[in-house]
């Protein structure tokens, strides 16, 4: 059996990719959802996404109002404008949801992510990893004779760029928190 050949100018598509090629292009949106801080709420929100085939690119959640028993869920998702509107409407109808904000369309927002990178190496690769970490303002939070663990915060794009540069230098493991975001300004 001969290997599959792809002619120049064509692309491979998954048999499971059922998206309409004529549909509107997908956009990435960051949603901030204020919910009751009680058991099962996160499962209901995630269930809404999985039950309708929506993907979650990033998810963070934490209590933000202890006295009011409220948590904030920050969800980064991707879809056509119509799908994003549908997601927001369906989230807003869930009983434990108090508020849904689309930070992508409501104005400027600040998005940050925290990541830890374990990089192993010796000699020049070790020196280069330290040099790049300094450029990216990553902190060394653990060090042995053969490895470093770097901590870095920034936009998801900055985290991705750092990961790409660390791969050839000995990146063996990484952990990411997901996006935390707030709208800018007084509102």
Architecture overview:
- There is one protein chain.
- This protein is an alpha+beta fold.
- The protein folds into two domains: 27-102, ACT domain (Alpha-Beta Plaits); 109-183, Alpha-Beta Plaits, CATH 3.30.70.1150.
- Helices cover 26% and strands 38% of the residues.
- Strands 5, 6, 7, 8 and 9 form a five-stranded antiparallel beta sheet that branches. A four-stranded antiparallel beta sheet has the order 2-3-1-4, with helices on one face.
- The protein starts with 26 loop residues before the first strand and ends with a strand.
- Dimer of large and small chains.
- Keywords: Amino-acid biosynthesis, Branched-chain amino acid biosynthesis, Transferase.
- It catalyses: 2 pyruvate + H(+) = (2S)-2-acetolactate + CO2.
Q: What labels would you give this structure?
A:
187 residues; alpha+beta; Alpha-Beta Plaits; five-stranded antiparallel β-sheet; four-stranded antiparallel β-sheet
Summarize the structure.
This protein is of the alpha+beta class and 187 residues long. The chain is 26% helix and 38% strand.
- What is the CATH architecture assignment of the largest domain? 2-Layer Sandwich
- The total number of structural domains is 2
The number of strands is 9
Which whole number gives the mean pLDDT?
Answer: 89
Described by strand count, sense and barrel closure, the largest sheet is: 5 strands, antiparallel
The number of helical runs is 4
Low-confidence stretches: 1-12
- CATH class of the largest domain, please? Alpha Beta
* Superfamily (CATH H level) name of the largest domain: ACT domain
Strand content: 35-45%
Helix share, percent: 25-40%
Order of SSEs, N→C? EHEEHEEHEEHEE
Rg, alpha carbons: 21 Å
Coarse morphology: globular
CATH topology of the largest domain: Alpha-Beta Plaits
